[in-house]
Amino acid sequence: MKQKLLSILLLSLFALSAMAQSRDVTGKVTGADDNLPLPGVTVKVQGSRTGVETDAAGNFTIRINSPADVLIFSYIGYQPQSVVAGSNNNLAVKLVNSAKQLSEVVVTGYTSVNKAKSVSAASVVTSKDINDVPMPDINQILQGHAAGLVSTSSSGQPGAAQDVIIRGVGSLSAGTSPLYVIDGIILARGDYNDSGDFATQTTDVLANINPNDIENVTVLKDASALALYGARGSNGVIVINTKKGKNGTSTITARAQYGYDRASFGNWKLLDGKQVFDYDRNVLKINGYPQGQINSFFPDSLLKHTFNWVDAAFRTGRTSDYEISSQGGDDKTQYYLSTGIFNQDGALIYSSLKRYSVLSNISHQVNKQLDISLNINASYSNTQNALGGGYFASPILGVVADSPLQSPYKPDGTLYTGLEPEWTSITADNFLYSYPLNTNTDLNLRTLGKLNINYKFSDLLKLSQNVSADLINAHTKGFTDPTTADGYNSSDPSKSGDILEELVQFRSLTSQSSVSGKFSLFNDKNQFDYLGLFEYQGNNDNNFIAEGTGLASGKLKVLNVTSTPTATAGDEDDYNFVSYLGQFNYAYDNKYYLSASFRRDGSSRFGVDNKYGNFYSIGGSWKISDEGFMKNQTIFQNAKLRASYGTAGNASFGNYQSLQLYSYGATYNGSPGSVPSSIGNPNLTWEKSSQADIGLEFGVLKNRLKATIDVYNKITNGLLQNVPISATSGFTTTAINVGKLRNQGYEITLSSDNVKDGPFKWTTDLNFAFNRNKVLALNGNQDIIGGTLGITRVGLPIGSWYMKQYAGVDPANGDALFYKADGTKTNDYNEAETKVLGTSLPKYTGGITNTFTYQGFVLSAFFYANIGNTVFNQLKEITDSDGQQFGWNYDQAAIDNYWTHPGQNATNPKPIPGGNGDSASPSSRYLESGTYLRLRDITFGYNIPNSALKKLNVSSARIYVQGTNLLTFTGYTGIDPENGLNGNDILKYPVSKSVTFGIDLTL
Amino acid sequence: MKYKKIILTLLLVTTVFGACKDKLNVVPYDSLSTSESLSDVNGLSAALAGAYSGLRNNSYYGQEFMAIGEISADNVYISITNSNRYITTFRRDYTTIDADVNSIWDQIYAVLLEANNIINNADAAKGDATQKNIIKGQALFIRALCHFDLVRLFAKPYTQGDGSQLGVPIETKFEVGTPARNTVAEVYTQVINDLTAAKTLLADEPIGDAYDVNKYAVSALLSRVYLYKGDNTNAITEASVVIGSGQYTLTPPADLPTFYTTSNNPEEIFTLRFLASESQGSENYGGLYLRPGYGDVRVSPDLVNDFEPGDARRNFISPFSASPSEFQNDKFSGEAGIFGLYSPKVLRLAEIYLNRAEAYAKTSQYPLAIADLNTLRAKRGLPALTTVADADVLTRVLDERRKEFMFEGQRFFDLTRNSVDVERGYCQQITEVSAPCSISATGFNAILPIPQQEINVNPIPQNPGYGK
């Protein structure tokens, strides 16, 4: 107590003496890149509460107590800056735009290169596009923000897996997803909830990472960068950097978001009760059923209790996101800490994602030689995962399978379970009863950690050791209530109810040891740097499953209470990579750059005869605008030409495919059984791609319009192909490295300051990509006819549709007609010709963002376009199938001019209960254009003026409202033209439209 | 000081390098190499269990094979509200890309490989010769069953062309090739040779439960194969071996109600066992017939009306739970307390009596045929037949087969192999999916198309009538 009193006294004395030296400092704040005045910049004296704000001309006046005082300048979208007041009374301060500052560096995961020096084609997406978007998953957010990256989803389940490809589909049978690298940690495993046993949606590889913790994402596209990742780089690499602390003032930021979302159904609409009633009766009538039978099957009384199942299955979802972060440091130690809670209740009833995340990035310079850093990113998520659309208990199926003539309520007002005789729906389950009771929960704990130690002997030699871990603990719980249709066991009611649990543990440990350095030779104009690295990654994946039935009550939720264990299972896999990497860069006169790299990769996945592979790249860039002959021209600014060529591999396929194996998963009569599980191929190896890229970067109109143009040609050789073989062998496919594929395309990225002088500003950022995919060779150049819908054929793109061509309705009898090879029509599906009919992959993708700024107001609108693909509207095979799903609900299209009498020129074939022959079999009848333009994001924000914030001790504050997916322009008649890469629209969880309100406060 | 650090770093790096050398040779935890797996008796025995589990797969005896044999015929219909299962089978309007057709073709050939690997590795494997023979004999039975089922599904019956018509490719070893279609006769020869060899190998096997094949199961299958082939004399001989063995007894009426919800009853010769833990959930065979399963497949009133008063088998049919004016099949309500679970009784004594009765009738030994029929009827709560005109005996036998094996996947083959058309007495009703009222036993669609995906990689001729 005494001590405290004393210190207060001392402090006041100090303050008194300090006041004696106080004076006013004035100055002007401008933007570093355009020298325009910045109004509304907060200016504070470090350690005091005094703060002012610049006026419209960027001028400020602030009182300081000593020339040693440090002034802190902060402004949204710009990097904070500290300036010692000194004795100058008129300060000129230039603030650097934070987004632009970040884009100056291309981070490859192994190295960071100043963009000006980089020889790579890479797209950088910065925090301004990533933060505050009310989506849980960075892969969702990346859509449309990086030229050449296609991100598409087939599910609106919060956190559901996204299909991501970079520069086209690069493989037939191996994985096509890019490699993900977070803070230098290579993520070895993608989807980590084994959805197979749970009939749920898969969880995205990045759903556990908080997008607000991300500083930037670098999408590596060309060989000069991909060769660094050798056998795993071919599909492109997405390098994610989390936020790091910066030398300077410490800040605390709080963010809060709250939003609403509704499922978006686009042009899709089902029939209402009366329409179904009329249709069902008429179908029976035109098929000659006696009117008396029809009346007894479909009495008028049915119309008294019609029900809208779609309204019951979907709700207004809510998203909330709360986060606190702090960053700062001095010249020795910097830190960034954050913690967040994200909660999204999906638009489908009882689906949600809750995520708790913590990030801690700390670095410390021990002495001149030694520095050390530790990154830890931990998150825990709880997902209520919607049952897949292929299950009768799923509302996704229920909304089409349950006729609106079937009410979910009994006459006494209670819900049917689906087991009652009066329940007529084919689902034998009332999802309104079962869905709240039967749950699928994913509990995922993911921890990414990396320790980095650098020891620098001199510029010439630096030793570095990284040890990193990616640890995943994924626990999935499936609970089936004993009173629901899925849970009730009529042959032994005491065995009703079921609990199924699976625990997946994944461990990936990586060690990277490197030497690096830089030097100059002959003179300062010849700059060299090098990197030599050894990397080992060991992965272990194991899981076990336990299941029990027999629950005394649905309130009992753990395996311990089940009366009969029904399943135990477990599995384990190992796979390892051993790699050597070397990179060498040469710069001459800061105008000419050359970069070469080599990587040797060994993988346990490959055949004994092919354990190691070598990859290399070479790239160069030329800063044309720094040449003497460019000095006098004024058209181009910062023009740079770059080119690269190199190789990379794709090793993402099953672990033991090279071995001929018997698997011991089978059982018979209590004895262990074994079955041939792998046909084996000792020569199996990675796919190898070689890619050439030429890029041009330049600015025109005094750098107000900046452009990057890339052209590439990527050829994948030794395609891993699951070649179909005669089933008489006992196998249906065998994996061999054969075949060749080409992806060609161009990418354009533009950013433009349309209006920059004055208080009103308008910028446009646009990216656009074209990709043409072509299969160049296959095994014996034989077509691969995959399943029933697609074909892989030399000369065609991957994802080509292959089915019968629909020829309309025969007016004579209402049969569906199909074209034969000779152009005539037939009603015999087997006789009709199977044809190539478009591709599921878009030709063009692009995004355009317009941002308008006035005073503190910011309006930004981001459109995404997907052009030139074909979608198979397979849901219509159910809902518009000419009576095949009689008694279900139907699409509006089903009642549109269907055939009822001879001579009628009908749009739809004659509906017959059970279906009209092959009228609903796969054909062009259900193929539609998948082209769309979507207002992916629109945000209106307001930076509250500092004058209003002063009293609250808040240095900056922003409020905003944001809309996601609010508008979609498309001719597609299904729910949503976005259907993942396979373009197959069947019983999926629809995406949502959302409106979100948010506030950011920085202290 | 500096050098110490360098040395330490180098040491660290070399340790890491050294430790990595063996990291690239990784073997799976759940599998063994094929050669190791089949190198001894224990491995063969596991492979045999694997082959049995392959027979029991959902695409084969677990569901699909039995569904095709039943739904194609006249015992059942598919409800107008249905889960879209087996409609192409009910209508017999398969496309060449039909998913059911693909899966049953793939699955039977997969089991053939499982059997072939045992047969071809048994002699060289380490272990007791008798044990090896018993394993090999069972594998030969499985190979014969697979070939027989393939030829039943994908080729015209033996009697429609005397065996010279196109059959299916015979597989006796692992090969990735383009085997041509053998003739039906060649397939039957292979089946009979395999079964004959199996009989010798299994001669000394003790007779255990019905879950493993023994020599009587071999004879039982032989009696069926001969019957299909039209070799009635041998059908009688093999049936008599089984009946005469005294190992099996027909289920009395009192025990009949639990016959299909339990396994290894004295009547069963070969049963593919499903343990409770091997339940396929909603895909259990009984789920096709009953709620809360799919309940799509309902019993035709035509079959219901076929029963004589007092027939104990009539009790397997009751009003449909969710639509009491229709009928449901209660045979497969569940085993071991698991809804819809059914261990397929592939061969049982009742069939052997009926096989022999049919062969007797076809060789004009009418009193013997009636005697066998009456043996069975007595166990089903029915009086003995006394006055049956000779011309009606075969019809009586086939009608008895219909009721005895209803829902067990025999009906369609029993009709087509005798060139009797499917005539659905209950047809085009509001309760059922629209489908043809009759299916010609000699029509193109009485057999399945060869899957187009097979023809894509193995250019064998398609069955006529299924396009090119």
Polypeptide structure, described:
The complex is a heterodimer of chains A (1003) and B (468). With 1003 residues, chain A is mostly beta strands. Chain A contains 12 helices and 51 strands. Chain A has a 22-stranded antiparallel barrel. In chain A, strands 10-15-16-13-14 form a 5-stranded mixed sheet. A 4-stranded antiparallel sheet of chain A has the order 3-2-5-6, with no helix packed on it. The radius of gyration of chain A is 32 Å and the shape is globular. Chain A starts with a helix and ends with a strand. With 468 residues, chain B is mainly alpha-helical. Helix content of chain B is 44%, strand content 8%. Chain B contains 16 helices and 11 strands. Chain B has helices at residues 2-20, 34-37, 41-55, 64-71, 87-91, 99-122, 129-154, 184-201, 215-229, 232-245, 301-304, 349-362, 366-378, 390-404, 411-417, 452-457; strands at 31-33, 76-78, 268-271, 297-299, 317-320, 323-329, 334-335, 338-339, 345-348, 422-423, 438-439. In chain B, the strands form 5 sheets. In chain B, strands 2-4 form a two-stranded antiparallel ribbon. In chain B, β5 (317-320) and β6 (323-329) form a beta hairpin. In chain B, α7 packs antiparallel against α8 (184-201), α9 runs parallel beside α12 and α12 runs antiparallel to α14 (390-404). The chains are: A mainly beta (1003), B mainly alpha (468). At the A-B interface, α7, β25, β26, β30 and β31 of A face α1, β1, α2, α3 and α5 of B. β30 of chain A pairs antiparallel with β1 (31-33) of chain B.
Q: How would you sum up the major sheet of chain A?
A: 22 strands, antiparallel, barrel
State the end-to-end CA separation of chain B.
83 Å
**How many DSSP helices of chain B?**
16
**Oligomer description:** heterodimer
Radius of gyration of chain A: 32 Å
Q: What's the main sheet of chain B like? A: 2 strands, antiparallel
What is the mean predicted local confidence, pLDDT of chain B?
92
- The residue fraction in helices of chain B comes out at 40-55%
Report the helical percentage of chain A.
Answer: under 10%
- Rg of chain B, rounded, reads 25 Å
**Rough outline of chain A:** globular
C-alpha geometry of chain B: globular
* Low-confidence spans of chain B: none
How does the helix and strand content of chain A classify structurally? mainly beta
How large a portion of the residues of chain A is in β-strands, by DSSP E? over 45%
User: Proportion of β residues of chain B?
Assistant: 5-15%
- Total beta strands of chain B: 11
Helix tally of chain A equals 12
